Amino acid sequence: MLWFLWKSRNKLIFERKWTPPDAVFWQARSHALETHFALNSAMLASPRTPRWVCWQPPTQPFLKLNTDGSRNHQSGRACAGGLICDHLGRWVHGFTVNIGFTSSFLAELWGCHEGLKLAHSLQLQHLILEMDSLMAIQLIQTRQVEKGPFSVLLTDILVLLDAFSNCIVRHTLSKGNSAADFMASLGHKSPLGTTFYQNPPVGISMLMHGDTIGTMFLRP
Questions:
Q1: pTM of the predicted structure, to 2 decimals
Q2: According to the 3-state scheme, what is the secondary structure of the chain?
Q3: Most buried residue among 3, 46, 210, 219 by CB atoms closer than 10 A?
Q4: What is the CATH number of the domain that holds 205?
Q5: pLDDT digit string (tens) for 107-117?
């Protein structure tokens, strides 16, 4: 909390930018929760062993939604993005969302939220949701919503999940989420708000081809 108060004080003195006290409080609380989840995950995790990782296509009738968040640590601006693919790894639809100033964890949740909204707009019924944020996955799977900066967003995510006939939520490693990472990074070049892509954007084809043929990466 003291560090966030110090940051807001410096911003007021050197940048002439005032941060409301409640905003400082929720920034500090959000950071504390992120740290809590991260430390718990590290304590519960078993020692890492080398592992081959790849994107795996869904089995019919499922489609797969991969989402990711991205935050520029210098500017503080955050974005998210994702894509939906079929059982052959073909592009169905994609999106980016330029969020503005927020935490990396909230960026992950925004990516999940906007991806699920997109899937609903396409009237999909059977969906696999994959993210490389273990903290976000654990929060969604426990379905426990506590008052905080992301409580409304998390509640909306749970409502969206329940509206599918069948939705599987699972964690993947970052190497198995590279196309979603590309879309999240693309969000930094997009206007504020959500941008939809009916066709694959330039630059993602090689990543998707690698996913389709089952290119594997060794995670140390």
A1: 0.79
A2: CHHHHHHHHHHHHHHCCCCCHHHHHHHHHHHHHHHHHHHHHHHHCCCCCCEEECCCCCCCCCEEEEEEEEECCCCCEEEEEEEEECCCCCEEEEEEEEEEECCHHHHHHHHHHHHHHHHHHCCCCEEEEEECCHHHHHHHHHCCCCCCCCHHHHHHHHHHHHCCCEEEEEECCHHHCHHHHHHHHHHHHCCEEEEEECCCCCCCHHHHHHHHCCCCEEEC
A3: 210
A4: 3.30.420.10
A5: 999 999 999 99
Number of domain units in the chain: 2
36 lies in the same domain as 118 = no
State whether 35 and 63 are in the same domain.
Answer: no
Query: pLDDT tens digits for 45-57?
Result: 556 677 788 999 9
Q: Are residues 40 and 84 in the same domain?
A: no
Are 34 and 81 found together in one domain?
no
